[in-house]
Amino acid sequence: MTLTDVLASLPTIDNPLNGILPNFSIFGVEFTALWQKLVAGIWAVGIILAIVFVAVGVTQMAGASSSGNPAAYKDARTQAMWAGISLGILAALSVIVGAILAFFG
Fold this sequence. Notes:
Blueprint: H1 3-9, H2 29-67, H3 70-91, H4 93-104
Helix pairs in contact: 2-3
């Protein structure tokens, strides 16, 4: 008896969520506008913070480079790199979420 035979003999359960899609309109237009504004505001704050961290990291890189401290330069470069990656992800967040939903949805 193979694994496929065993799996075929097991009872199946219908997916209770089949054909159901998320819909926020059930809560009304005011709720939809509110959560969209909240998400947009949090997203904007994240982008601003990432820009600040990129600027701080680049400034620290310049300071460490002029002082000749390789360890401080490496730390500042790592901070600037991660802040830049975070900024890129935040800028492309809509595309990333859309791709995930298209792939798995």
